[in-house]
Amino acid sequence: MNRDTNLPLTETTYYVLLSLLEPAHGYIIMQKVEDLSNQQVRIAAGTLYGAIDNLLKQELIKSVKSKDKRRKTYVITDKGKEVLQLDFLRMQHMIGITKDLLSL
Q1: How many domains does the chain have?
Q2: pLDDT over 90 for what percent of the chain?
Q3: Hey, how many other C-beta atoms are within 10 angstroms of the C-beta on 5?
Q4: Domain contains 4
Q5: What pLDDT does residue 69 have?
Q6: Closest C-alpha to 82, from 22, 24, 4, 1
Q7: Averaged over 79-84, what is the pLDDT?
Q8: Which residue would you say has higher pLDDT here, 101 or 1?
């Protein structure tokens, strides 16, 4: 099996994709990433919008209509969900072999 060219995801990208399982705008994404990561990952606005731009280009997220016309709202695409799942499976494999080799 060939590895997807989008893998591995960075930790930040992984959390951004997770946060977009429901539509959200920038500030909400930043809050969700912080919450999901147990306050271990904090994203500055510039970093977030760079990540959003890359994810849009890769078609892992898309812009959706919002009631609030002042804010752009995004959601993960089916392709994004697939990449997220592939990275999850990749990490599960890594954890499994690490457990075995370290006898944890």
Answers
A1: 1
A2: 87
A3: 7
A4: no
A5: 81
A6: 4
A7: 97
A8: 101
Structure tokens at 10: 């960075």
The residue behind tokens 């994404």 is 29
Q: How far is CA 8 from CA 31, 35, 66, 90, 92, in A?
A: 23, 22, 31, 8, 13
Q: What is the CATH number of the domain that holds 33?
A: 1.10.10.10
- DSSP per-residue letters across the chain: -PPPTTPSPPHHHHHHHHHTTS-EEHHHHHHHHHHHTTTS----HHHHHHHHHHHHHTTSEEEE--S-TTS-EEEE-HHHHHHHHHHHHHHHHHHHHHHHHHT-
Whether 1 maps to a domain, the answer reads: no
The predicted-structure confidence for 17-67, as pLDDT tens digits, reads as follows 999 999 999 999 999 999 999 999 999 999 999 999 999 999 999 999 988
Domain that holds residue 49: 11-102
Rg (the chain; Cα; Å): 15
pTM confidence score: 0.91
